[in-house]
Amino acid sequence: MDFLVQEGYPDAAARFAEEANMATNAEDSLIEERVRIKNAIYRGDLQTAIEEINDVDVSILDNDPALIFSLLRLQCVELIKKVAPAPDSEKPALVAAATNFAQCNLSPYTRRDPKFQKDLERAMALLIVPKEVWGSPDLLQSEQFSMFGDLSDLIDASQKMEVAKNVNAAILRLQGRRGGSKIHTILQTRAWAEELAREKRIELPRDLTVSLRDTDSQSGNGDTQMTEDADDALERYTNIPSPR
């Protein structure tokens, strides 16, 4: 039940509660607003997602520059992804739109905190590296493109899932709920205990197959992570029109 409510499945939670003869205190409107935001991120409509997050509470993004930066970078990547399939006559305008978006809305973050510089550079590398190379580790390791590193995570659906998960957790914290479900916390604790045992060279059973990592603190792709210690928010992100 807790997992279904936290992850935004109100209908499934209601059916589960009915079948298990349990009461649920979940407010459908609160779940549905998180679902709308998550779906907007999944379909690449980041401007709508940002606006709806601000409708919930502007402090969510104001107090977490890494979170708003991750949303804006996804928006920039969506603009870049339109370049390759477009007719040659339209490509210059699309490249200019993506570059201008990055300069106006992402660069200010790199000037205030250099840790975002690498994150931005990885995104802009998609304009330089051909589309057919983006998801090819072999080609990305070639001498011509090795300087950019692996770019596949930027265009993979998992990137949107990671950002949506972080947004969902931020909203839950604002609402006074945990940022993750109980079952997720239990699995994370188990994974922590397993890693600690391995570090101390304690022998573990051979059939101990679960090995989860703390996905709330590490995404594994080298990007700057969310932080609770945030500077004052940049105001630019609330005024950015997103090409439809």
TrEMBL record:
Pfam families assigned to the protein according to its UniProt record, in alphabetical order: CTLH
InterPro entries assigned to the protein according to its UniProt record, in alphabetical order: CRA_dom (IPR013144), CTLH/CRA (IPR024964), CTLH_C (IPR006595), LisH (IPR006594), Ubq-SigPath_Reg (IPR050618)
PROSITE patterns xrefs: CTLH, LISH
Ranges for region Disordered: 211-244
Domain CTLH, first and last residues per copy: 31-87
Purpose of the protein: Involved in the proteasome-dependent degradation of fructose-1,6-bisphosphatase.
Protein name: Protein FYV10
